[in-house]
Design brief:
By secondary structure, this protein is an all-alpha fold. The chain has helices at about 45-65, 65-75, 75-85, 85-105, 105-110, 115-130, 130-145, 150-170, 175-195, 205-225. The longest helix has 21 residues, at about 150-170.
Length: about 220
């Protein structure tokens, strides 16, 4: 009797020749792709980070969710964990990215010497706040830091390790760390009153006028002169 031979269990054998060299073909993968593959590819990390900044800006630290970040980035939540880990690690990466322009103020103050350091620092820091592109991420980070202690700790560690310690190391005289922090707090306070609280006439004053008035105070913090 002719026909297709059967296996002992009664099922028909697969027809067709074996793969070259006698090696059977590898079984085809079925089902959904790996969770960490969903949405991966060039630019996935950057998309996640952009989505995370938007999520923190809109919902704050407590309200932000990894699921929301993943949805906005077009990836699976597992990929967010793959790249960044838990939420505080994502927040730290978002803080560092958003705060990166301000972190270079230490180089500006240190490299050009003590003379005029206060004015340079004031112009640079207030300039970061004047630009909406750099201001909005900073505001989002500050709102989260004010409302949540975990977020505040992440922000505090970054500012301390990447800015204050380095700036203080270059200052002469006693209490260098305290003086560097007072200089920074003075400028952040001005920026918050100008851009968040919008206190007049500060809110609508020309930025160069503000720099000219604030610079000498910052200079005294930095150099005592």
């Amino acid at each position: 009797m002719t026909g297709t031979p059967e296996k002992p269990d009664g099922r028909q054998k697969a027809e067709g020749p074996p793969a070259a060299g006698g090696t059977p073909p590898a079984p085809r993968r079925r089902g959904r792709p790996s969770r960490t593959d969903a949405g991966s590819g060039p630019g996935a990390r950057e998309r996640i980070l952009t989505a995370a900044r938007a999520e923190f800006a809109e919902h704050g630290y407590d309200g932000a969710s990894i699921r929301g970040m993943a949805k906005n980035a077009g990836v699976d939540p597992a990929l967010v964990h793959h790249y960044f880990g838990p939420k505080e690690k994502i927040f730290a990466a978002a803080v560092e990215t958003a705060f990166a322009p301000a972190l270079s103020v230490a180089d500006l103050v240190i490299d050009a010497g003590p003379e005029g350091a206060g004015e340079r620092m004031a112009r640079f820091v207030l300039g970061v706040w004047e630009d909406p592109v750099t201001r909005e991420p900073l505001l989002a980070i500050l709102r989260s830091a004010v409302a949540n202690e975990t977020a505040a700790g992440v922000f505090r560690d970054l500012v301390s390790s990447r800015l204050m310690i380095r700036l203080a190391a270059e200052l002469d005289g006693p209490d260098a760390r305290l003086r560097s922090e007072l200089a920074a707090s003075h400028l952040v306070g001005v920026a918050m009153l100008r851009h968040v609280i919008k206190l007049e006439p500060l809110a609508s004053a020309d930025v160069e006028q503000v720099v000219a008035m604030v610079g000498p105070a910052v200079q005294r913090y930095l150099t005592g002169a």
